[in-house]
Structure formats: structure tokens, C-alpha cells
Model the fold of this input.
Amino acid sequence: MTHSGNSTASGNTIAQRNGNTAPGENAAAEYLRIVQYDMMRRAMLEAKRLGKLIVAHCEDNSLLRGGYIHDGAYARAHGHRGICSESEWGQIARDIRLAEETGCAYHVCHVSTKESVELLRRAKQLFKAWSQ
Done:
């Protein structure tokens, strides 16, 4: 099983540790995304070779920004810090592309955004078309 979140070794982004966005943070975040992409690609290739399944908890920690609930009407109405939907669907989109490229079996542990549902629905339709 793998966790596909983007985080530093301490589990937080540089900006989260410092409480602000430092100069070069965008470059550091982009580098981390590239590293995470490559790491997930290698994991999928190895899982495919071994006949194993990648099981992913999709959450991009760099997009959490202290949030702990979906950033929707309820969160705003009740003063909660919201998490943007992209923190989930962005990684699912990346992983679907990689699963298609590598042929690896892939499972998302839980899905909580409409964008994620739509991405997975389309991927399943494509998979059905490929397997016929």
C-alpha cells in the first residue's frame, strides 16, 4: 500500500512548517510533485511486475493549508477551514494516467469529491472499452 500525498519527510510542506510561503516555495513544491510522480510511477511498475495492487490514499498535503473539512458551503457557513477538492482529485488524475501507462492495478481507498468520482467513472469506462 502506498500513500500518494505530497509531503516532506516531516509530513508537512515547507510553508506549513514555517507558517508562510518562503521564497522558492513554488519551485520546491513543483520539484516535490515531480519526485512524487516519478516515485509513484516506479511503484506502479514494480507492483505490475509483482502482480500487486497499488492502494492509494489520495491527498496532496501541499494543498491542505490547515484545512480539515471539505471547502464547501457548510465549512464557510460554520467557520471551518476548508480543504480544496483538488487535493484529492489532482492525485487521482495523476495516478489514473500512470496506471494507464504502466498497466498497474490501482485502487483509491476513499473518494469524497465529485471531480474524483467523475475521473474514476471515465477511467472505468475506458478500461471496459480496452478490455473488450
Notes: DSSP finds five helices and five strands in the chain. Residues 1-21 have pLDDT under 50 and may be disordered.
